[in-house]
Amino acid sequence: MKPTAPTTVEEFMAQAYAMELEAQQRYADLADAMEMHNNREAAELFRKMVVIEGKHAAQIMAEMGWKAPPANAVAPAWEGFDSAEQVPVDDVHYLMRPWHALQLALAAEQRAARFFAELAMTAKDESVRKAAIELRDEELEHVELVRAWMAKVPQPEKDWAEDPDPPRYDD
Amino acid sequence: MNDLAAAAPAAACTPATFKSAVKPVWCPGCGDYSVLSAITKALAMIGRPPHEVGVVSGIGCSSRIPAYTSCYGFHGVHGRSLAAATGLKVARPDLTVIVTGGDGDGYSIGGNHFLHACRRNVDLTYIVMDNHVYGMTKGQPSPTTEPDWDSKLAPGGTKIRVFHPMVVALAAGANFVARAFAGDPNGTAAVIAQAIRHPGFSFVEILSPCVTFRPEQKEWKSIVRPASAEATDDPALAARRVMSDDGLNIGVLYAGNRPCYRLNDGSAASNVTDLEMEFRV
Q1: Contacts of residue A169 in chain B, CB cutoff 8 Å?
Q2: Which pLDDT band holds residue A171 (cuts at 50, 70, 90)?
Q3: pTM of the model
Q4: Which residues pair with B102 in a beta bridge?
Q5: Could you tell me if the ipTM is greater than 0.85?
Q6: Which range among B3-7, B86-90, B162-166 shows the weakest confidence by mean pLDDT?
């Protein structure tokens, strides 16, 4: 589905800000869930993503010269029910490894880049189109950064999901 | 002014205002995380501060929600959340009262309370996180479990017809009936806010996947869709619609206009002294 482009840069950046906040909140929820299940490595990684998304949101605030967050800004749903940069809440596992968490972050950044690329194509206002291209490029940079990060993180073992005392017994 | 009131002036309410410091213990990936998020978003939309909201629950995974909010909370007895919430709302009509629970708690153990809460039409919002299984107690079939769902605890399935909560709610007199999906937290928040604003007994059935005992429910996110029809105020039409759908249409099904239950018709004692007089032998 094609996203509907906002008609002003102000509106567009408010939407982008809301997207960063939603992504940040989702990472925070996942970090809490992993901590609760004693998966400290995955929790730590999600916590780092919380900080990164918070910085992106702060960057938008600074660029726009906003003193207070935009009121009533909504992150549009895209390619499903979530907004473009949100990690799906159900794509996690209590034994997941940091590499899996980065895989989710990578997919989220790629989705965000596609979203802004689509928005740039549908924008009727030239300044909105330029802003969308700028954010698309930023998201593509993030894609490369996550890829570089993944290269430094060990790939999960084959039996990463093996639990000697699983919550559910099937046999 | 109590501590809750001091902590959150109404004007400053955001979703975070309604989250407590207690972290959920649900399985990672559980739909209930998104429902909690939707409830806090809905409360921020409503704009009432936490000390003007009561969250009441029974027992089960989803019934842990009161602890995760900063509102007044009551984690009650299994299946009795609606009875406790009815008492709270009747005694304190100024509060916004939300009831949360699961399909086992609400439709089995609390099934009879569900019927009569719909009938009474007290101004409550009942949110049921339906995952078609008893998750907390390791995966027994619940009233909404499909009859052929095969599991170690019910080999070959129960062969028992499923309970149809939305039709039952309509037949029993609920004044607002909707279905939402946990994987759509913003859409769910909007439905919950609408349910809270609607007078009388509002029932919101939320499809909330259990990733541990019903991992196949992760497919819901690719098959649920917004209902094609607008909400109606005709319960018969609403019942026909919901009886003929596949259980995956989301949105507001019914918004009625039945007057809600009010205790204060002047006949009840208004203070303890008057109450004591009534019971004097």
Answers
A1: 152
A2: low
A3: 0.92
A4: B129
A5: yes
A6: B3-7
DSSP B104: I
Residue B248 lies in a domain: yes
Q: Is residue B144 in a domain?
A: yes
Average pLDDT of the segment spanning A20-44: 96
Q: Any bridge partners for residue B154, and if so which? A: B151
Q: Which of B62, B81, B38 is nearest to B134 (CA)?
A: B62
Number of domains in chain B: 1
Domain ranges of chain A: 9-152
Average pLDDT for B100-127 = 98
pLDDT digits (tens, 9 = 90+) for B140-194: 999 999 999 999 899 999 999 999 999 999 999 999 999 999 999 999 999 999 9
Q: Give the Cβ contact number of residue A44 at 10 Å.
A: 14
On whether the CB atoms of residues B27 and A36 are closer than 8 A, the answer is: no
CA distance A45 to A28: 10
Is B233 part of any domain?
Answer: yes
CA distances for A134 relative to A33, A116, A120, B249, B281, angstroms: 34, 9, 9, 38, 81
Q: What is the DSSP string of B124-160?
A: -EEEEEE-SSBTTTT-B--TTS-TT--BTTBTT----
The answer to whether residue A141 scores a pLDDT higher than 60 is yes
B-facing residues of A in 126-145 (CB < 8 A) are none
Whether B32 shows a pLDDT value over 60: the answer reads: yes
Q: pLDDT, tens digit, for every residue of B33-59?
A: 999 999 999 999 999 999 999 999 999
Which chain B residues contact residue A94 at CB under 8 A? 27-28
Q: Any idea which architecture A9-152 has in CATH?
A: Up-down Bundle (1.20)
Contact: B24, A91; criterion CB under 8 Å: no
**What is the 3-state secondary structure of B198-262?**
CCCCEEEEEECCCCCCCHHHHHHHHHCEECCCCCECCHHHHHHHHHHCCCCEEEEEEECCCCCCC
Rounded to whole angstroms, the Cα distance separating B46 from B39 reads 10
> What's the distance, CA B254 to chain centroid?
16
Best residue in B18, B23, B41 to probe A by mutation, most A CBs within 10 Å?
Answer: B23
Structural domain span for residue B179: 26-279
Using pLDDT thresholds of 50, 70 and 90, give the confidence band for residue B280: confident
